[in-house]
Design brief:
The chain is of the alpha+beta class and 256 residues long. 27% of the residues lie in helices and 31% in strands. α4 packs across α6. It starts with 9 loop residues before the first helix and ends with a strand. The relative contact order is 0.16. The structure holds biotin (BTN). The site of biotin has 20 residues, from α2, β3, β6 and β7.
Length: 256
Amino acid sequence: MKTAMSELTADAIARDLGTEVVGCVVEYRAEVASTMDVARAAARDGVADGWAIVADVQTTGRGRFGRRWVTPPGVSIAVSVVLRPNERERCWLSPLAALAAARAIEAEIGLPAALKWPNDVLVNDRKVGGVLVEADGDSAIVGIGINVNLDPAAHVETAGASSLSAEAGAPVSRLAVLRRLLQEMDGLWLRLRRGDAIGAEWAARLQTLGQAVEVKTGSVVVVGVAEAVDEVGALLVRDATGHRHRFLAGEVTMRR
Ligand code: BTN
């Protein structure tokens, strides 16, 4: 584990990063509304694939289902990356980002990181990060939020989420986790672009599989066992009557 106080600057993030695409250009802002909006505007301006925006604070960070995502000063990673996937690649961006985040966390804090379908990042079964992918024409904006040194007790608005430092019991370097995240994303993106599959590595981290779950999409709620994910990452859930349901999106709650 590295020291906690390494400061995020565009230069420190990008220096000798060694990536081919992801993080080819890194912009840093002290405060933005949401890195998703900054990245979307940049994508429309024609920035290169892999262009990334990192912010210390987000005043209106957002999560899935339109939820608020809290990014207080000095303690979180908030990053959005512009990519331009083809049809085959598009559905794998969210798994790619979640897998990259899990690997980066594991490498930096030395604790196993798992995933809750589709893209919540967990340490010790508690959520420490999440992924939001938004399409904009041919571009996709891949947003990743990780609670690094956030004190969960001081931020009740994170709704039960934890942080890397809370789970590791020591401060964690945002810079080290962020750089590793961009490197892992780059490696996976290059593989995906070559036509390789990354689904098996993502699925291997899904602690959702084999569990009793409740899946909610809009007003529909299905209770059953999460059996598998398919060739596009959809979740397959078998209910008590034996019927199999397929979800491309949804909110999963574990039923222990
Ligand atoms: C979720 O778990 O609901 C997804 C959270 C995604 C948060 C990140 S932080 C960087 C980017 N900017 C945002 O406003 N959201 C994403």
